[in-house]
Amino acid sequence: MSKLIPSALADIIRRPLVTEKATMLLENNQYTFEVDPRADKPQIRAAIEELFQVKVVGISTQNPPRKKRRVGKYAGFRSQYKRAVVTLAPGDTITLFPDV
Q1: How many domains does the chain contain in total?
Q2: What is the tens place of the pLDDT at every residue in 64-75?
Q3: What is the CATH number of the domain that holds 72?
């Protein structure tokens, strides 16, 4: 496992995950993101705080199991990803859907 360089903090956060469970967690000021599988919790914390200008209180990470994928006669796996649930300090918010 190679470590990520600190200058690539913007590359750690791939996208926000918008699922039914993630939407329910927004009420508790918790946001769910797909992150780079090589990233550790201090790197995720630094990236969130730098990108969104918020204070992170806690982080929970999960590496879900890889799922099999078949295309015709070829079998393989979906790409690996890591999920991070970030708890923000009271009063801080992240705008996932900015008004256009």
Answers
A1: 1
A2: 998 999 999 999
A3: 3.30.70.330
